[in-house]
Amino acid sequence: MKLIVTGGRDYNRVALLHAALRHLRPTLIIHGACPTGTDHHADEWARWNHVKRDPLPADWSDMSPPCKVRYGRHGPYNALAGFRRNAQMLTRGGEALLATEGGPGTMDMLDRAWKAGLPIWRVLGSDLHGPSGDVVLDLRSPLKEKV
User: Fold this and answer.
1) Is pLDDT of 121 > 50?
2) Which stretch of 41-45, 89-93, 140-144 has the lowest confidence by average pLDDT?
3) How far is CA 52 from CA 28, 48, 57, 61, in A?
4) Which of 65, 80, 86, 104 is the 20 to 30 A CA-CA neighbour of 6?
5) DSSP assignment, residue 68?
6) Using an 8 Å Cβ cutoff, are 110 and 121 in contact?
7) What are the residues whose beta carbons fall under 8 Å from the beta carbon of 110, sequence distance 6 or more?
8) Are 43 and 29 in contact (CB under 8 A)?
9) Does residue 141 carry a pLDDT above 80?
């Protein structure tokens, strides 16, 4: 399965994310290429498990419309670049979405995936929720599937 992964840049429940990925067994992981959090940990798992990766970083310097200029420690950037990248991730052939806890960018990606009709898997707390919303796996004990 080609899996889009999204979540917070501060997400650090690495073992839970890795357990979810082991359960889903993706053949390709598409992610937003953030150097920290969910994207980083999913990329790490893919490297360790010889799974193909398709990182798609946001182009924060692209000031073409739509644009909302903000100023950070490295100068001006387009605050909407992450949302633009989320739209692009959907064009990469993902067959499902896995989301961890996150902020507005994660919620945007969840909304886009839902509107596109993708099955959505969520890591909430220590459980993996399937596309129907039911808990399918306690990620603290990956061998204990819930029925």
Assistant:
1) yes
2) 140-144
3) 5, 11, 16, 27
4) 65
5) -
6) no
7) 6, 97, 99, 120
8) yes
9) no
Residue range 60-82, pLDDT digits in tens: 999 999 899 999 999 999 999 99
Please report the pLDDT score of residue 140 as a whole number: 82
Across the strands, what pairs with 130? Answer: none
- Smallest CA-to-CA distance from 112 within 133, 77, 136, 84 is with 84
Q: What is the CATH number of the domain that holds 65?
A: 3.40.50.450
Taking 3-state DSSP, the helix, strand and coil percentages for the chain, each rounded to the nearest 5, stand at 30, 25, 40
d(CA 87, CA 92): 10
Quick check: is 143 in a domain? Answer: no
Q: Which pLDDT score, from 0 to 100, does residue 147 have?
A: 43
Could you tell me if residue 63 is inside a domain? yes
Q: Tell me whether residue 20 is in a domain.
A: yes
For 127, list phi and psi in degrees, rounded to 5.
-115, 150
- Domain range holding 7? 2-138
Tokens of 137: 């796996």
Q: How far apart are CA 29 and CA 101, in angstroms?
A: 18
